[in-house]
Amino acid sequence: MSGINMTQQQELTNIIERYSDGDGVHKTAIPSLYFLRRSSTSEPSHGVYKPSFCMIVQGAKEVWLAQDRFKYSPADYLVASVHLPVNSQVTEATPELPYLGLKLEFEPSQIIEVLHDSELLVDPKVNPKRAMYVSHIESSLLDAVVRLARLLDNPNEIPVLAPIFTKEILYRVLQGENGDILKGLVMEESAINQIRDVIEHIVNHYERSFRIEELAEIANMSVSTFHRHFKEVTALSPIQYQKQMRLQEARRLLLTESSDASDVAFRVGYESTSQFSREYSRMFGFPPRQDIKRLKA
After folding, report:
1. CA–CA gap between residue 232 and residue 279 (Å, rounded)
2. Which neighbouring-strand residues pair with 18?
3. Is the CB of residue 261 less than 8 Å from the CB of residue 254?
4. How far apart are CA 72 and CA 135, in angstroms?
């Protein structure tokens, strides 16, 4: 924790505890800011990370993106720069010292605004890199996060100051050692930006069947170049990525709307219920009905 202000770290701990009513994910009064709390370690759990800045204040966590493991603690922060299907696990937490974290989601337009208003240098030819990374947290970034969280005690100031502090947080992240990844995502000429266009297309139309040539055309790349760049950014092939997004959405639908696996399978794009059940079991460890019953219990 070298260079980190422990007083600020403690203040952030107190704020998260105060605005977290027990374990779980807690939406705050600040747009796109969430607090996370767990009083015990967890089993690996599947989910989709939206573009977000994530920070741990107490405890530790591991996030798996395909075969890549990202381990972080209060000395670090994690950034997901596009929608990514992941497997995550809280590895350090007790009732006395619960896992405490925060997540600040952002839009590409916010990155564009920061770059427009700053003098940060941007290289449009930056090579595609993983869209998820862990970096060491600097005191200036922690300071901005504390000031944003502190607004919860002064809700009248949120409409004016929250956008300013959020912008500062993104500015500090863009200044960081991996800031080029975020910069590349919004530069029209960059390969990373072209892959982001395809990712957004898949996310918005995950239930459709795609030909790889169609996706490569959206990226304005040859099929081989597109496939290589897509895997470099997401750690998954386009087909694997779409399958994971489909199954994640299917699980959400089964939990919240319907217990009919065949109906949900059709809604997320499967033509065969048996294939859906097989792939669901392979990803989540249990067939759909058994998995949902277990989760609800």
Report:
1. 24
2. none
3. yes
4. 9
| Percentages (nearest 5) of helix, strand, coil residues in the chain | 50, 20, 30
Per-residue pLDDT of 59-71, as tens digits, reads 999 999 999 999 9
Alpha carbon distances (Å) from 256 to 250, 253, 264:
10, 5, 11
Q: What pLDDT digit, counting tens, does each position of 139-182 carry?
A: 999 999 999 999 999 999 999 999 999 999 999 999 998 998 88
Distance of CA 246 to the CA centre of its chain: 17
Helix or strand holding residue 227 (H, E): helix 223-234
Q: What is the 3-state secondary structure (H, E, C) of 60-89?
A: EEEEEECCEEEEECCCEEEEECCCEEEEEE
pLDDT category at 2 given cuts 50, 70, 90 is very low
Task: Give mean pLDDT, residues 254-274.
Answer: 90
H helices within 134-211, ranges in order? Answer: 139-150, 158-175, 179-185, 191-204
Q: Is 7 exposed, middle or buried (0-12, 13-18, 19+ CB in 10 A)?
A: exposed
* Rounded Cα distance, 159 and 1, in Å: 32
Q: What is the model's pTM?
A: 0.91
Could you tell me if 64 and 44 are in contact, meaning their C-beta atoms sit under 8 angstroms apart?
Answer: yes
At position 195, the amino acid (one-letter code) is I
User: What type of residue sits at position 83?
Assistant: H
- CA 98, CA 23: separation in Å to the nearest integer? 9
